[in-house]
Structures are given as structure tokens and as C-alpha cells.
Automatic annotation (TrEMBL):
Signal peptide: none annotated. This is Uncharacterized protein. Its main location: nucleus. It is found in: Nucleus. The lineage of its organism: Eukaryota, Metazoa, Chordata, Craniata, Vertebrata. The keyword DNA damage applies. Keywords: DNA damage, DNA recombination, DNA repair, Nucleus. GO terms for molecular function: crossover junction DNA endonuclease activity. One of its GO terms (cellular component) is nucleus. GO terms for biological process: double-strand break repair; mitotic intra-S DNA damage checkpoint signaling; replication fork processing; resolution of meiotic recombination intermediates.
């Protein structure tokens, strides 16, 4: 590719894909995929297409997919409070959808399927600041990857082989 000033531009395919989701969307998609897996109530394997529609873009072995859900604990706590009866008013609870009634166990089962079958990592964070710190750390690690590969190829400095090992011989008296 050639730029307007005659310089060559290079493009590279990103190998790390990060998708940030709101808790409501994540739980709705997770609930939908679980229902599609077991419409008759029997235990089944969730359909990953409903949870991560980007899954089929490329081969999961070449790309690393990560889903970040921000504020899931707070979201579940808030909706749990909404389900509790209001004092002084009997049978006046707010009926929530199936995505808000998912148990921690159901979520963990789906996470195992995502990791094993879909090669998708899921990270639960509480704030956007935690997401910024995570992205910064991952970016730093990816940027250092070529340097670390170069360092791994270098022989150890204490290795006895090589030209540098043929230095000046020092006797027992230090001369």
C-alpha cells in the first residue's frame, strides 16, 4: 500500500480481539444461548453464536478473543433487590426476565464452554478504570513480545561457549 506522500504503509491483522459488554446484554445473550441448547429442559451445550456473534469471523486458533463484562456483580445485586418484596405491600415484586434469574453456577458452566469450545476468555470487572488498566497491561505485554522473543534466542551471558569466553586468562594471584 502506498501513502499520499509516497511512503509505504503496512497493515497488520490484529490477533487480539476485545469485546466489552454490559451485564444486561451479556446475561441476555447467555440466557438465550442456554435456552437454545436445552429447549426441552435437558442439559445441553450452549450455542456460542448467540453469545459471541463475532466468533465465526476467523479461526479461533489464530485469534485470541476476550469478552469483558463490566459491573456484573453490581447489576445482579441491584436486580436481586428489585425481586425482594416491598415492605407493607404483599406480592408486589417486580418480575424479571430469565437473564436476571441466572445463577452463578449457570454462568460458570457457560464460561467453561466458552473457554474450552470457543477459545474465548471472559473477564469480569467492576469499573471502566479496571478495564483501562487491563487494556494497558495487555497492550504493554503485546508490545514487549518481539523483545522477549529476541531475548529468548540470545545465549545466556554466563555460557562458556562463544567468542567472548576467550577473554584474558587470570591466574590465581590475580595477575
Amino acid at each position: 500500500m502506498s501513502g499520499s506522500d509516497g511512503c509505504q504503509e503496512e497493515t497488520a491483522v490484529e490477533r487480539e480481539v476485545l469485546l466489552a459488554m454490559q451485564p444486561s446484554y451479556f446475561l441476555r445473550q447467555l440466557s438465550s444461548s442456554m435456552q437454545n441448547a436445552s429447549p426441552d429442559g435437558k442439559q445441553g451445550v450452549p450455542d456460542l453464536i448467540h453469545l459471541c456473534p463475532f466468533q465465526n469471523l476467523e479461526d479461533p486458533s489464530t485469534l485470541s478473543y476476550s469478552v469483558v463484562v463490566i459491573g456484573l456483580d453490581t447489576y445482579q445485586w441491584y436486580h436481586q433487590l428489585l425481586q425482594e418484596p416491598i415492605t407493607g405491600q404483599e406480592n408486589e415484586t417486580l418480575q424479571l426476565g430469565p437473564e436476571q434469574s441466572m445463577t452463578r453456577h449457570q454462568i460458570e458452566e457457560a464460561l467453561v464452554v466458552l473457554q474450552l469450545r470457543g477459545n474465548i476468555n471472559v473477564l469480569f470487572l467492576e469499573t471502566w478504570q479496571e478495564l483501562a488498566q487491563h487494556v494497558s497491561a495487555v497492550t504493554r505485554a503485546v508490545a514487549q513480545r518481539p523483545y522477549k522473543k529476541h531475548q529468548e534466542k540470545q545465549p545466556f551471558s554466563f555460557c562458556a561457549k562463544g567468542k567472548w569466553a576467550s577473554g584474558v586468562h587470570i591466574g590465581k594471584d590475580g595477575k
